[in-house]
Write a structure and sequence with these properties.
single chain, 380 residues, mainly alpha, Growth Hormone, Chain: A, 19 helices, 81% helix, 0% strand
Protein backbone atom coordinates (compact mmCIF):
# COMPACT_ATOMS: atom_id res chain seq x y z
CA UNK A 1 0.00 0.00 0.00
CA UNK A 2 2.71 2.48 1.01
CA UNK A 3 4.57 1.79 -2.26
CA UNK A 4 1.54 2.64 -4.38
CA UNK A 5 0.98 5.89 -2.53
CA UNK A 6 4.67 6.75 -2.76
CA UNK A 7 4.62 6.17 -6.53
CA UNK A 8 1.84 8.75 -6.92
CA UNK A 9 3.89 11.34 -5.05
CA UNK A 10 7.03 10.40 -6.99
CA UNK A 11 5.37 10.86 -10.38
CA UNK A 12 3.47 14.03 -9.48
CA UNK A 13 6.46 15.84 -7.98
CA UNK A 14 8.83 14.75 -10.72
CA UNK A 15 6.64 16.91 -12.93
CA UNK A 16 6.78 19.73 -10.37
CA UNK A 17 10.57 19.60 -10.17
CA UNK A 18 10.92 19.73 -13.94
CA UNK A 19 8.47 22.61 -14.35
CA UNK A 20 8.29 24.90 -11.31
CA UNK A 21 11.85 26.27 -11.31
CA UNK A 22 11.99 26.69 -15.09
CA UNK A 23 8.48 27.54 -16.26
CA UNK A 24 9.16 31.30 -16.02
CA UNK A 25 12.16 30.76 -18.32
CA UNK A 26 9.87 29.06 -20.86
CA UNK A 27 7.35 31.90 -20.60
CA UNK A 28 10.13 34.44 -21.12
CA UNK A 29 11.36 32.40 -24.11
CA UNK A 30 7.87 32.64 -25.64
CA UNK A 31 8.13 36.44 -25.43
CA UNK A 32 6.35 37.32 -22.17
CA UNK A 33 7.65 40.15 -19.95
CA UNK A 34 7.91 40.11 -16.12
CA UNK A 35 4.38 41.38 -15.48
CA UNK A 36 2.87 39.01 -18.06
CA UNK A 37 4.79 36.13 -16.49
CA UNK A 38 3.49 37.19 -13.08
CA UNK A 39 -0.06 37.33 -14.44
CA UNK A 40 0.12 33.82 -15.94
CA UNK A 41 1.60 32.36 -12.78
CA UNK A 42 -1.06 34.13 -10.70
CA UNK A 43 -3.83 33.01 -13.07
CA UNK A 44 -2.78 29.39 -12.65
CA UNK A 45 -3.20 29.77 -8.89
CA UNK A 46 -6.35 31.89 -9.00
CA UNK A 47 -8.42 29.33 -10.92
CA UNK A 48 -7.76 26.90 -8.07
CA UNK A 49 -10.08 29.01 -5.92
CA UNK A 50 -13.01 27.69 -7.98
CA UNK A 51 -11.79 24.50 -9.64
CA UNK A 52 -10.21 22.86 -6.58
CA UNK A 53 -13.19 23.07 -4.18
CA UNK A 54 -15.56 22.09 -6.99
CA UNK A 55 -13.58 18.90 -7.52
CA UNK A 56 -13.43 18.24 -3.76
CA UNK A 57 -17.15 18.88 -3.28
CA UNK A 58 -17.97 16.47 -6.12
CA UNK A 59 -15.64 13.83 -4.67
CA UNK A 60 -17.31 14.09 -1.24
CA UNK A 61 -20.79 14.10 -2.78
CA UNK A 62 -20.04 11.00 -4.84
CA UNK A 63 -18.06 9.32 -2.07
CA UNK A 64 -15.25 8.68 -4.57
CA UNK A 65 -11.54 9.55 -4.76
CA UNK A 66 -9.71 7.65 -7.51
CA UNK A 67 -12.27 8.14 -10.30
CA UNK A 68 -12.23 11.98 -10.05
CA UNK A 69 -8.43 11.83 -9.90
CA UNK A 70 -8.29 9.90 -13.17
CA UNK A 71 -10.69 12.35 -14.84
CA UNK A 72 -8.88 15.53 -13.79
CA UNK A 73 -5.37 14.17 -14.37
CA UNK A 74 -6.30 13.07 -17.90
CA UNK A 75 -7.73 16.49 -18.77
CA UNK A 76 -4.66 18.20 -17.31
CA UNK A 77 -2.40 16.10 -19.54
CA UNK A 78 -4.34 17.31 -22.57
CA UNK A 79 -3.96 20.86 -21.28
CA UNK A 80 -0.18 20.51 -21.16
CA UNK A 81 -0.23 19.42 -24.80
CA UNK A 82 -2.15 22.60 -25.58
CA UNK A 83 0.92 24.72 -24.78
CA UNK A 84 2.75 23.33 -27.82
CA UNK A 85 0.95 25.52 -30.39
CA UNK A 86 0.29 28.40 -27.94
CA UNK A 87 2.18 31.57 -28.91
CA UNK A 88 1.43 35.05 -27.65
CA UNK A 89 0.21 36.24 -24.27
CA UNK A 90 -3.53 35.63 -24.84
CA UNK A 91 -3.24 32.02 -26.04
CA UNK A 92 -0.75 31.14 -23.33
CA UNK A 93 -2.99 32.71 -20.67
CA UNK A 94 -6.08 30.81 -21.90
CA UNK A 95 -4.19 27.51 -22.01
CA UNK A 96 -2.83 28.23 -18.54
CA UNK A 97 -6.36 28.76 -17.18
CA UNK A 98 -7.70 25.48 -18.64
CA UNK A 99 -4.71 23.39 -17.59
CA UNK A 100 -4.60 24.83 -14.08
CA UNK A 101 -8.34 24.25 -13.61
CA UNK A 102 -7.87 20.57 -14.44
CA UNK A 103 -4.73 20.23 -12.32
CA UNK A 104 -6.25 22.01 -9.30
CA UNK A 105 -8.09 19.06 -7.70
CA UNK A 106 -5.46 16.41 -8.48
CA UNK A 107 -2.92 16.87 -5.70
CA UNK A 108 -5.39 17.72 -2.89
CA UNK A 109 -7.61 14.77 -3.82
CA UNK A 110 -4.53 12.57 -3.93
CA UNK A 111 -3.41 13.88 -0.54
CA UNK A 112 -6.88 13.22 0.82
CA UNK A 113 -6.83 9.65 -0.46
CA UNK A 114 -3.42 9.20 1.20
CA UNK A 115 -4.78 10.48 4.53
CA UNK A 116 -7.72 8.04 4.31
CA UNK A 117 -5.20 5.22 3.77
CA UNK A 118 -3.08 6.42 6.68
CA UNK A 119 -6.10 6.40 8.98
CA UNK A 120 -7.07 2.89 7.85
CA UNK A 121 -3.62 1.26 7.70
CA UNK A 122 -1.69 3.46 10.19
CA UNK A 123 1.03 4.42 7.72
CA UNK A 124 3.75 7.07 8.20
CA UNK A 125 2.79 10.11 6.09
CA UNK A 126 6.24 11.70 6.09
CA UNK A 127 7.96 8.60 4.75
CA UNK A 128 5.42 8.31 1.94
CA UNK A 129 5.53 12.00 1.05
CA UNK A 130 9.34 12.18 0.95
CA UNK A 131 9.41 10.22 -2.33
CA UNK A 132 7.75 13.18 -3.98
CA UNK A 133 10.49 15.41 -2.64
CA UNK A 134 13.17 13.03 -3.91
CA UNK A 135 11.82 13.07 -7.45
CA UNK A 136 11.36 16.85 -7.27
CA UNK A 137 15.12 17.06 -6.70
CA UNK A 138 15.78 14.74 -9.61
CA UNK A 139 13.57 16.83 -11.87
CA UNK A 140 14.98 20.20 -10.80
CA UNK A 141 18.64 19.16 -10.94
CA UNK A 142 18.22 17.09 -14.10
CA UNK A 143 16.49 19.82 -16.10
CA UNK A 144 19.01 22.38 -14.84
CA UNK A 145 21.81 20.28 -16.31
CA UNK A 146 19.92 19.53 -19.53
CA UNK A 147 19.16 23.21 -20.18
CA UNK A 148 22.81 24.19 -20.40
CA UNK A 149 23.25 25.25 -24.04
CA UNK A 150 19.71 24.19 -24.99
CA UNK A 151 16.46 25.98 -25.76
CA UNK A 152 13.95 26.55 -22.92
CA UNK A 153 11.40 24.77 -25.16
CA UNK A 154 12.80 21.62 -23.54
CA UNK A 155 10.99 22.66 -20.33
CA UNK A 156 7.61 22.24 -22.02
CA UNK A 157 8.45 18.88 -23.63
CA UNK A 158 9.66 17.44 -20.34
CA UNK A 159 6.61 18.87 -18.56
CA UNK A 160 4.26 17.07 -20.95
CA UNK A 161 6.06 13.78 -20.41
CA UNK A 162 6.11 14.31 -16.66
CA UNK A 163 2.40 14.96 -16.32
CA UNK A 164 1.56 12.01 -18.57
CA UNK A 165 3.55 9.84 -16.15
CA UNK A 166 1.60 11.29 -13.19
CA UNK A 167 -1.65 10.46 -15.02
CA UNK A 168 -0.55 6.84 -15.39
CA UNK A 169 0.43 6.67 -11.70
CA UNK A 170 -3.09 7.65 -10.62
CA UNK A 171 -4.38 4.31 -11.93
CA UNK A 172 -2.22 2.54 -9.34
CA UNK A 173 -3.85 4.28 -6.37
CA UNK A 174 -6.20 2.19 -4.19
CA UNK A 175 -9.91 2.86 -4.54
CA UNK A 176 -10.30 3.92 -0.89
CA UNK A 177 -13.55 5.67 -0.03
CA UNK A 178 -14.58 7.62 3.08
CA UNK A 179 -17.12 6.16 5.53
CA UNK A 180 -20.81 6.54 4.85
CA UNK A 181 -21.97 10.15 4.76
CA UNK A 182 -22.71 11.71 8.14
CA UNK A 183 -24.20 15.01 9.22
CA UNK A 184 -21.07 17.07 8.64
CA UNK A 185 -20.73 15.76 5.12
CA UNK A 186 -24.23 16.96 4.21
CA UNK A 187 -23.30 20.48 5.26
CA UNK A 188 -22.27 23.22 2.89
CA UNK A 189 -18.54 24.01 2.61
CA UNK A 190 -19.53 27.09 4.61
CA UNK A 191 -19.67 24.69 7.58
CA UNK A 192 -15.87 24.68 7.50
CA UNK A 193 -15.58 28.45 7.15
CA UNK A 194 -17.67 28.86 10.31
CA UNK A 195 -15.03 26.97 12.32
CA UNK A 196 -12.42 29.45 13.67
CA UNK A 197 -9.69 26.80 13.82
CA UNK A 198 -10.10 25.97 10.12
CA UNK A 199 -10.07 29.67 9.20
CA UNK A 200 -6.88 30.22 11.24
CA UNK A 201 -5.19 27.26 9.53
CA UNK A 202 -6.19 28.78 6.19
CA UNK A 203 -4.79 32.15 7.27
CA UNK A 204 -1.48 30.90 8.65
CA UNK A 205 -0.97 28.46 5.79
CA UNK A 206 -1.88 31.10 3.20
CA UNK A 207 0.59 33.64 4.54
CA UNK A 208 3.43 31.15 4.89
CA UNK A 209 2.88 29.59 1.46
CA UNK A 210 2.31 32.95 -0.26
CA UNK A 211 5.62 34.18 1.12
CA UNK A 212 7.29 31.84 -1.41
CA UNK A 213 5.84 33.85 -4.34
CA UNK A 214 8.99 35.75 -5.29
CA UNK A 215 11.09 32.60 -4.91
CA UNK A 216 8.87 30.45 -7.11
CA UNK A 217 8.12 33.14 -9.66
CA UNK A 218 11.35 35.07 -10.08
CA UNK A 219 14.31 33.62 -8.17
CA UNK A 220 15.59 31.69 -11.20
CA UNK A 221 15.44 34.85 -13.32
CA UNK A 222 17.03 36.92 -10.53
CA UNK A 223 19.86 34.48 -9.91
CA UNK A 224 20.50 34.03 -13.64
CA UNK A 225 20.65 37.83 -14.09
CA UNK A 226 23.25 37.98 -11.32
CA UNK A 227 25.58 35.46 -12.94
CA UNK A 228 24.40 32.14 -11.45
CA UNK A 229 24.27 29.48 -14.18
CA UNK A 230 21.33 27.14 -14.75
CA UNK A 231 23.17 24.12 -13.29
CA UNK A 232 23.78 25.99 -10.04
CA UNK A 233 20.17 27.19 -10.01
CA UNK A 234 19.03 23.59 -10.28
CA UNK A 235 21.31 22.63 -7.40
CA UNK A 236 19.92 25.45 -5.25
CA UNK A 237 16.40 24.19 -5.85
CA UNK A 238 17.50 20.62 -5.18
CA UNK A 239 19.17 21.55 -1.89
CA UNK A 240 15.95 23.08 -0.62
CA UNK A 241 14.12 19.84 -1.23
CA UNK A 242 16.89 17.71 0.31
CA UNK A 243 16.25 19.60 3.54
CA UNK A 244 12.53 18.98 3.09
CA UNK A 245 13.16 15.25 2.65
CA UNK A 246 15.16 15.10 5.87
CA UNK A 247 12.31 16.73 7.75
CA UNK A 248 9.73 14.34 6.29
CA UNK A 249 11.93 11.31 7.04
CA UNK A 250 13.08 12.24 10.52
CA UNK A 251 10.72 14.94 11.74
CA UNK A 252 7.70 12.86 12.72
CA UNK A 253 8.59 13.06 16.40
CA UNK A 254 9.25 16.79 16.16
CA UNK A 255 5.89 17.38 14.49
CA UNK A 256 4.08 15.34 17.12
CA UNK A 257 5.75 17.25 19.96
CA UNK A 258 5.23 20.72 18.52
CA UNK A 259 1.70 20.30 17.21
CA UNK A 260 -0.07 22.18 14.44
CA UNK A 261 0.11 25.75 15.74
CA UNK A 262 3.77 25.66 16.75
CA UNK A 263 4.72 24.10 13.42
CA UNK A 264 3.10 27.04 11.62
CA UNK A 265 4.93 29.49 13.90
CA UNK A 266 8.26 27.75 13.28
CA UNK A 267 7.62 27.90 9.54
CA UNK A 268 6.89 31.63 9.61
CA UNK A 269 10.00 32.46 11.66
CA UNK A 270 12.19 30.41 9.33
CA UNK A 271 10.63 32.20 6.35
CA UNK A 272 11.47 35.62 7.73
CA UNK A 273 15.13 34.61 8.05
CA UNK A 274 15.22 32.96 4.63
CA UNK A 275 13.73 35.89 2.70
CA UNK A 276 15.94 38.44 4.46
CA UNK A 277 18.99 36.47 3.30
CA UNK A 278 17.63 36.05 -0.24
CA UNK A 279 16.96 39.77 -0.55
CA UNK A 280 20.34 40.87 0.71
CA UNK A 281 22.78 38.56 -1.13
CA UNK A 282 23.33 36.46 -4.25
CA UNK A 283 26.37 34.75 -2.74
CA UNK A 284 26.10 30.98 -2.99
CA UNK A 285 27.66 30.73 0.49
CA UNK A 286 24.54 32.43 1.89
CA UNK A 287 21.96 31.14 -0.58
CA UNK A 288 22.79 27.49 0.19
CA UNK A 289 21.86 27.65 3.91
CA UNK A 290 18.91 29.91 3.07
CA UNK A 291 17.59 27.29 0.66
CA UNK A 292 18.03 24.60 3.32
CA UNK A 293 15.51 26.51 5.45
CA UNK A 294 12.91 25.17 3.02
CA UNK A 295 12.61 22.25 5.43
CA UNK A 296 10.75 24.63 7.72
CA UNK A 297 9.31 27.32 5.44
CA UNK A 298 7.49 24.68 3.39
CA UNK A 299 7.98 21.30 5.07
CA UNK A 300 6.90 22.25 8.60
CA UNK A 301 3.85 24.15 7.30
CA UNK A 302 2.85 21.19 5.13
CA UNK A 303 3.14 18.75 8.04
CA UNK A 304 1.07 21.13 10.16
CA UNK A 305 -1.66 21.20 7.51
CA UNK A 306 -1.77 17.42 7.10
CA UNK A 307 -1.80 16.95 10.88
CA UNK A 308 -4.74 19.34 11.19
CA UNK A 309 -6.67 17.66 8.35
CA UNK A 310 -6.17 14.26 9.96
CA UNK A 311 -7.10 15.31 13.49
CA UNK A 312 -9.73 17.99 13.02
CA UNK A 313 -11.73 17.28 9.83
CA UNK A 314 -14.54 14.65 9.73
CA UNK A 315 -13.61 12.06 7.04
CA UNK A 316 -16.81 12.76 5.07
CA UNK A 317 -15.75 16.41 4.67
CA UNK A 318 -12.08 15.64 4.07
CA UNK A 319 -11.94 16.14 0.29
CA UNK A 320 -13.80 19.43 0.56
CA UNK A 321 -11.50 20.65 3.33
CA UNK A 322 -8.36 19.55 1.48
CA UNK A 323 -9.34 21.21 -1.78
CA UNK A 324 -10.56 24.36 -0.02
CA UNK A 325 -7.19 24.70 1.69
CA UNK A 326 -5.41 24.15 -1.62
CA UNK A 327 -7.72 26.62 -3.36
CA UNK A 328 -7.39 29.39 -0.81
CA UNK A 329 -3.89 28.96 0.62
CA UNK A 330 -2.14 27.62 -2.48
CA UNK A 331 -4.47 29.18 -5.04
CA UNK A 332 -6.15 32.43 -4.09
CA UNK A 333 -3.80 34.07 -1.61
CA UNK A 334 -0.67 32.68 -3.26
CA UNK A 335 -2.05 33.66 -6.67
CA UNK A 336 -2.53 37.27 -5.60
CA UNK A 337 0.94 37.26 -4.03
CA UNK A 338 2.66 35.95 -7.15
CA UNK A 339 0.74 38.41 -9.35
CA UNK A 340 1.84 41.28 -7.12
CA UNK A 341 5.35 39.85 -7.02
CA UNK A 342 5.69 40.54 -10.76
CA UNK A 343 5.38 44.26 -10.10
CA UNK A 344 7.48 44.01 -6.93
CA UNK A 345 10.27 42.24 -8.78
CA UNK A 346 10.15 44.72 -11.66
CA UNK A 347 10.39 47.64 -9.21
CA UNK A 348 12.62 46.23 -6.45
CA UNK A 349 14.55 43.32 -7.91
CA UNK A 350 15.85 41.06 -5.16
CA UNK A 351 14.57 43.39 -2.45
CA UNK A 352 11.09 42.07 -3.20
CA UNK A 353 12.06 39.21 -0.87
CA UNK A 354 11.79 41.65 2.05
CA UNK A 355 8.04 41.90 1.50
CA UNK A 356 7.87 38.11 1.71
CA UNK A 357 9.63 38.24 5.07
CA UNK A 358 6.82 40.43 6.39
CA UNK A 359 4.21 37.91 5.19
CA UNK A 360 6.03 35.12 7.02
CA UNK A 361 5.92 37.05 10.27
CA UNK A 362 2.18 37.61 9.82
CA UNK A 363 1.85 33.83 9.52
CA UNK A 364 3.50 33.48 12.93
CA UNK A 365 0.79 35.66 14.49
CA UNK A 366 -1.95 33.55 12.92
CA UNK A 367 -0.30 30.39 14.28
CA UNK A 368 -0.15 31.93 17.74
CA UNK A 369 -3.87 32.71 17.60
CA UNK A 370 -4.62 29.13 16.48
CA UNK A 371 -2.76 27.80 19.52
CA UNK A 372 -5.13 29.77 21.73
CA UNK A 373 -8.36 28.91 19.86
CA UNK A 374 -8.13 25.18 19.03
CA UNK A 375 -7.97 22.36 21.57
CA UNK A 376 -6.51 19.80 19.16
CA UNK A 377 -9.69 17.77 18.65
CA UNK A 378 -12.16 17.02 15.85
CA UNK A 379 -14.20 19.99 14.68
CA UNK A 380 -17.85 19.78 15.61
Amino acid sequence: MAARLSLFYAAFFLFGGMQMPYWPLWLEHRGLGPQQIGFCLALAQAVKVFAGPTGGWLADRWGLRRAPLILFAGLATLGMLGFVPAHGFLLIALTTAFTAACQAPVLPLGENLVLLCIRQYRLDYGRIRLWGSITFIAGAAGVGALLVGRSPELVLLLGIAGYALAFVAVFGLPDIRPPATGGAARASPLWLLRRPAFVLVLLSGSLVQASHAVLYGFSSLYWQANGIDSRSIGILWALSVIAEILLFALGGGLAARLGVARLFMLSGLAGAVRWLIAGSSVSLMLLVPAQMLHAFTFGAAHLATMQFMSRAIPPQMSATAQTMYSAIAVGGVYGVAIWVSGGLYAALGGQAFYVMAGMSLAGVLAGLTLMRRWNGGMLG
